[in-house]
Design brief:
Elements: H1 17-26, E1 40-41, E2 44-48, H2 56-72, E3 79-83, H3 89-102, E4 107-110, H4 118-129, H5 132-135, E5 141-145, E6 154-160, H6 169-184, E7 199-201, H7 203-210, H8 217-223, E8 227-230, H9 237-247, E9 251-253, H10 284-287, E10 295-299, E11 306-310, E12 314-315, H11 318-332, E13 341-345, H12 351-359, E14 363-366, H13 374-379, E15 382-387, E16 391-394, H14 408-422, H15 426-437, E17 441-448, H16 451-458, E18 469-470, E19 473-474, E20 477-481, E21 488-495, E22 499-505, E23 511-518, H17 522-540
Parallel strand pairs: 3-4, 3-5, 4-7, 8-9, 8-10, 13-14, 13-15
Antiparallel strand pairs: 1-2, 2-6, 5-6, 10-11, 11-12, 15-16, 17-23, 18-19, 20-21, 21-22, 22-23
Helix pairs in contact: 2-3, 2-6, 4-7, 7-9, 8-14, 11-12, 11-15
């Protein structure tokens, strides 16, 4: 961690917005250079125009590929599109609109030319497709132009098919391959036109007015609790004021500023500006107000992540809040199916496992990536799906789907509901869970790995683990596939009674990530981390 972490950004930390946008149009990618090709990660294609990894050619080709993909899949309805506040989002959205209109796709943009959070777009897709009258016009899908919490120099581009959530790897693999073919062909097959023939959609009002069907807004209002909401300069900036006004809440929008340089941010752990509401360093300026509100929240640039700050506990660890949210929801949502499972990613805290067992609910553990929760949220068989990186969504009061993408606004409002209904802060409630189930220590660290080792780790089978103990305890499971859906996890997870670790290769650096947790204290966690390196290295040969 840099010694500047948590300190205000200086002029030297800020991007040159004009240079960034100029590079978007002027720099042309080399299709033969892997670093300049379209590549979809767990949340779309991301890159920077200055590195020739997010430029006009990339977005034109990717949009054309999406048009061809949706046509092949028989998607004939409208395409919803929205963007966040990153500097590259506006030009990328213009490029996408040119291609969509050029291909005669029916496009719906925000009625007020407002920014569109990822959950609001997912909500719009599902609202259209779940209404028989609108669905009869053809299924809808969508595009969100956002690199999420990434630094101001980055751009991002996500495709959400008709189920409303992140596209699966089959879809993104096809789209990326086709986009790179189009770039290599000089974009000769890309159709573009003046982006004038578009329709409008009120994302904000429809999302805000529907919140009463998933959050007890009346209880929050009755309680009179003072809520502070900081959009961190992101797409939720217009939504929090609308929520306050529509429901009559005692809510303050802490910082309504929008600045593509994010000059008001404090630096993250590595000295970069990063709008991560789960990072104490990035949230330092927000934390300065923790005693001014009963609940204080933050969102990232596209509002799919949440940060929860309480007067007594400060910024909650995302795993801690997920455990509290699950314990509360499954005892306060009588309209959910009795067999609705609890969804978690395999690198989330085992505190969730213990909470699920105490609730008598089935735990559904899946690989990293919110896309895995989509089917269960759609059919109501999963009541809640959450990731350790502060992303989650859950069902409406009646057990039907709300969003199939992460919803940071929703989780922030849930924190307010929990405070209003229980009279306790989420951090106080977590202390109660610790008293019942133990106090886990969780951390993610990196270990060096060559590209060949990373490739091998991604394909490693759990049976290749020969160790029989982990930090003094017998190993009870060695996993290379997720217990919930039997999908490959792209690495391994090793479990004992009171500890576990998971190892997964990084997609961008020559390292692999080690997630580890222990219920036996800090020293035991360090032993788990040390042995994890030895176990993985031995398995990789």
């Amino acid at each position: 961690m840099t010694d500047r972490a948590g300190t205000p950004a200086q002029a030297s930390d800020l991007i040159d917005v004009h240079a960034l946008v100029r590079a978007y149009y002027e720099l042309k990618p080399d299709a033969a250079d892997a670093a300049q090709r379209v590549a979809f990660g767990t949340s779309g294609h991301r890159g920077s125009s200055l590195k020739t990894s997010f430029n006009d050619d990339h977005i034109a080709a990717t949009t054309q590929a999406i048009v061809e993909y949706r046509t092949a899949q028989g998607v004939t309805g409208p395409l919803f599109i929205g963007a966040d506040t990153h500097a590259l989002s506006a030009p990328a959205m213009t490029t996408a609109l040119e291609v969509l209109v050029g291909n005669k796709v029916r496009v719906l943009v925000d009625e007020f030319d407002d920014y569109v959070p990822t959950p609001a777009l997912s909500h719009a897709i599902l609202r259209w497709n779940n209404n028989p009258a609108t669905r009869a016009e053809g299924e809808a899908d969508g595009i969100v132009v956002t690199p999420s919490h990434n630094p101001p120099s980055d751009g991002g581009f996500k495709y959400n098919p008709p189920h409303g959530g992140p596209a699966d790897s089959d879809a993104t693999g096809w789209i990326a391959k086709r986009a790179n073919e189009l770039i290599a062909g000089g974009l000769r097959e890309v159709l573009r036109a003046e982006p004038s023939a578009v329709e409008q959609y009120d994302f904000r009002s429809r999302y805000v007015e529907d919140l009463e069907n998933i959050i007890d807004m009346a209880a929050i209002k009755r309680s009179g609790i003072h809520i502070g909401a900081d959009p961190l300069g992101g797409a939720s900036v217009g939504y929090w004021g609308a929520i306050r006004d529509h429901y009559g809440l005692n809510l303050t929008v802490v910082n309504p500023a929008v600045d593509p340089q994010w000059g008001f941010m404090t630096l993250d752990w590595d000295g970069k500006i990063r709008m991560d509401p789960s990072s104490p360093s990035a949230m330092a300026s927000v934390l300065a107000h923790q005693h001014d509100y009963d609940i204080l929240t933050g969102n990232d640039a596209d509002a799919d992540r949440h940060g929860i700050v309480t007067p007594d506990g400060g910024l909650m660890n995302p795993n801690h809040f997920l455990a509290v949210a699950i314990d509360y929801l499954y005892t306060h949502r009588s309209g959910w199916r009795a067999d609705a499972a609890i969804g978690k990613t395999l690198v989330s805290s085992s505190m969730i496992d213990r909470v699920a067992a105490a609730l008598g609910r089935r735990l559904w553990e899946v690989p990293v990536g919110f896309k895995w929760f989509v089917p269960g949220l759609v059919d109501g068989s999963v009541g809640f799906g959450g990731e350790e990186s502060a992303g989650a969504s859950f069902l409406r009061f009646d057990g039907t789907v709300w969003t199939t993408d992460k919803d940071g606004i929703l989780l922030c409002l849930l924190a307010a509901e929990i405070r209003a209904v229980t009279g306790k802060s989420p951090s106080e409630l977590y202390a109660g869970l610790v008293a019942k189930h133990g106090d886990p220590v969780y951390e993610r660290v990196d270990a060096a790995a060559t590209p060949a080792q990373k490739l091998a780790l991604g394909r490693l089978d759990g049976d290749a683990i020969t160790a029989t103990t982990l930090a003094g305890e017998p190993i009870t499971a060695t996993l290379s596939r997720a217990p919930g859906n039997d999908a490959a996890i792209g690495g391994v997870k090793v479990v004992s009674e009171n500890a576990w670790f998971a190892a997964r290769p990084s997609g961008t650096e020559d390292v692999y990530k080690i997630y580890a947790e222990s219920f036996l204290g800090e020293d035991h966690l360090r032993q788990v981390q040390a042995e994890a390196r030895l176990i993985v290295d031995a398995a990789l040969g």
